[in-house]
Design brief:
CATH architecture: Up-down Bundle
Structural class: mainly alpha
Radius of gyration: 18 Å
CATH superfamily: Cytochrome c/b562
Helix content: over 70%
Oligomer: single chain
Largest sheet: 2 strands, parallel
CATH topology: Four Helix Bundle (Hemerythrin (Met), subunit A)
Strand content: under 5%
Bound molecules: ascorbic acid
Number of strands: 2
């Protein structure tokens, strides 16, 4: 192996070994700040929902499998998941807002971030599975993305 390849392999190895940078919780500074962040947070979840909707319909057989759409939506979900920490880190629990977020999000933020990482990985995996074209794996890969949504909702979303 050429030394440049070895260096590349070493960098790649490192990037997998180092966990995602931990993001600190910050209390909202005012009601205006809390309102703004609640809106941003909900916007990201709305977009996640709009992207998983068709994927769920495919997994349930209500829509034909479309691997291009699977790749596109899974890529979007991976990117949206990458924004979640930044929009979730502002603790709005001291304000009486129209929100389904449980205050425990901000008391367990390391766990929340680990669930976000699970979503990112499941969305990345779905892109690979869609690209492979192996239809026998589509349903499971979509289901795995949905499970990461559910896992966080079970703990941190009000009923
Ligand atoms: C969806 C959706 C979720 C997840 C979850 C999976 O389609 O909107 O939140 O899947 O229900 O169990």
């Amino acid at each position: 192996m050429k030394s440049t390849h070895l260096l590349g392999a070493a960098i790649l190895g490192l990037s997998f070994a180092i966990p995602a940078q931990s993001v600190e919780v910050e209390p909202a500074m005012s009601e205006k700040h809390a309102n703004a962040y609640t809106e941003y947070r909900q916007s990201v979840f709305t977009l996640l929902k709009s992207n998983i909707g068709p994927l769920g319909a495919m997994a349930k057989g209500k829509m034909e499998y479309d691997t291009d759409l699977m790749q596109t939506n899974a890529m979007r979900m991976e990117q949206l998941a990458g924004m979640l920490s930044d929009y979730l880190r502002v603790d709005t629990s001291n304000y009486d807002l129209d929100s389904d977020a449980k205050a425990s999000i901000w008391q367990n933020f390391d766990d929340v971030q680990s669930k976000i990482t699970d979503l990112k990985q499941a969305a990345a995996n779905l892109q690979n599975v869609a690209q492979s074209g192996d239809e026998s794996k589509f349903r499971q890969a979509i289901g795995n993305v949905g499970s990461t949504c559910k896992s966080c909702h079970d703990d941190y979303k009000k009923d």
